[in-house]
Design a protein that fits this description.
This protein is of the alpha/beta class. The protein is built from seven helices and eight strands; from the N terminus they run αβββαββαβαβαβαα. The strands form two sheets. Strands 5-4-3-6-7-8 form a six-stranded parallel sheet, sandwiched between helices. Strands 1-2 form a two-stranded antiparallel ribbon. It starts with a helix and ends with a helix.
């Protein structure tokens, strides 16, 4: 690197390298229901923060206008996006949350809503509300809450890192199973 790091603008340090913008990775998953609300919130945030790098996997939703967008990603591309991200924003699916945590990131979850046509029921709202109380995710229910969480990442990126915690993931999956059992007739 030589003296290259000292020539970069002020920002966060990663080793000897200074990083000035956040890398934000967003995934709506692969459900066939559009999740335009999450894409719009994140794209608006990207528009307001041009020095940050926002990548959105948008599925069947409307593509982002400002952020980099991909309808779908191969598993290796998804893993790379998670690994490079300072912040990961996702829908409230238990498997996605577990995958993000396994990649060492604390998910910022925005649950899909049945009332908005984003899913068949509100299981994501119930699930994320419960696991947020346990510290498994940070929950964002509005664009303002999402922006506040992304600002927290900017000031303390390490707070959004997690150690591999297989026991917590197992408990989260069990909780999801219990919630699904409660929905069954």
């Amino acid at each position: 690197m030589g003296g290259a790091a000292s020539q970069l603008p002020e920002g966060r340090r990663r080793g000897a390298l200074v990083v000035t913008g956040l890398a934000v990775f967003v995934t709506v998953g692969t459900d066939h229901h559009p999740f335009d609300r999450l894409v719009a919130w994140c794209d608006e945030w990207a528009r307001a923060h041009p020095d940050d790098r926002v990548t959105i996997q948008y599925g069947t939703s409307e593509p982002p206008a400002t952020a980099v967008g991909h309808a779908y990603l191969a598993p290796a591309e998804l893993a790379e996006g998670l690994a490079r991200a300072d912040a990961v924003v996702c829908h409230g699916g238990p498997a996605t949350i577990a995958e993000i945590r396994a990649a060492g990131r604390l998910p910022i979850a925005v649950p899909r809503r049945k009332a908005d046509g984003e899913h068949v029921d509100d299981h994501q709202m119930r699930y994320t509300s419960r696991v947020a109380r346990e510290g498994v995710v940070c929950l964002a229910d509005s664009p303002t809450e999402l922006a506040a969480l992304l600002d927290r990442v900017r000031s303390d990126v390490d707070a959004f890192r997690v150690a591999d915690d297989e026991d917590r993931v197992r408990r989260s999956v069990e909780l999801f199973g219990d919630l699904m059992d409660a929905l069954a007739p």
